[in-house]
């Protein structure tokens, strides 16, 4: 039975621009475990708690433009956050737009430079589904 997610692979057109977003806006730290010599593309692994996001500089088959205005109606990953209001402040300061959940739950959605959607919800929020 499945227990966790090890990592999520995210395609990016410009690795440096994506690193600026994920590290300097969201505060993620890089992981030194990526085997650079054995992979035929640029990339960086980022820690999200005990899991990772693998940024991979590869051609993206998905369009950047024309995606739903609310990321909750698009492919997305959901990340827990300790302080949602603190994230809102950081996003406003950095000029990153976000949308709040249409369900009126304390969640927000942003898009990275390549149009990939990230959802954020507080750690203490009840999950929308649970596998026992």
Largest beta sheet: what is the strand line-up?
A: 1-4-3-2
Radius of gyration: 15 Å
Structural class: alpha/beta
Taken from the alpha-carbon principal axes, the silhouette is globular
Which blocks of ≥5 consecutive residues have pLDDT under 50? none
The biggest beta sheet, please?
Answer: 4 strands, mixed
What's the mean pLDDT score? 89
Report helical residue fraction: 10-25%
How many helices? The count is 2
Percent range for β-strand residues? 25-35%
Total DSSP E strands: 8
For the record, give the distance between the C-alpha atoms at the N and C termini, rounded to a whole number.
Answer: 10 Å
Structure, described:
This protein is an alpha/beta fold and 132 residues long. Helices cover 17% and strands 30% of the residues. It has a 4-stranded mixed beta sheet, covered by helices on one side. It has a 4-stranded mixed beta sheet with strand order 5-8-7-6, with no helix packed on it. Strand 3 and strand 4 (51-57) form a beta hairpin. The chain starts with 6 loop residues before the first strand and ends in a 10-residue tail after the last strand. The relative contact order is 0.21. The model has no long low-confidence stretch (mean pLDDT 89). This is VOC domain-containing protein. Residues 4-123 form the VOC domain. It comes from Ceratopteris richardii.
């Amino acid at each position: 039975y499945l227990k966790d997610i090890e990592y999520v692979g995210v395609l990016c057109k410009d690795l440096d621009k994506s690193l600026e977003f994920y590290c300097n806006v969201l505060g993620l730290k890089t992981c030194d475990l990526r085997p650079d010599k054995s992979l035929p593309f640029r990339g960086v692994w980022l820690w999200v708690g005990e899991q990772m996001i693998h940024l991979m500089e590869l051609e993206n088959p998905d369009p950047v433009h024309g995606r739903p205005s609310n990321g909750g109606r698009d492919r997305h990953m959901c990340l827990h956050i300790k302080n949602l209001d603190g994230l809102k402040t950081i996003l406003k300061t950095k000029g990153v737009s976000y949308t709040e959940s249409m369900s009126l739950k304390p969640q927000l959605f942003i898009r990275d430079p390549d149009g990939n959607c990230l959802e954020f919800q507080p750690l203490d929020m009840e999950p929308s589904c649970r596998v026992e």
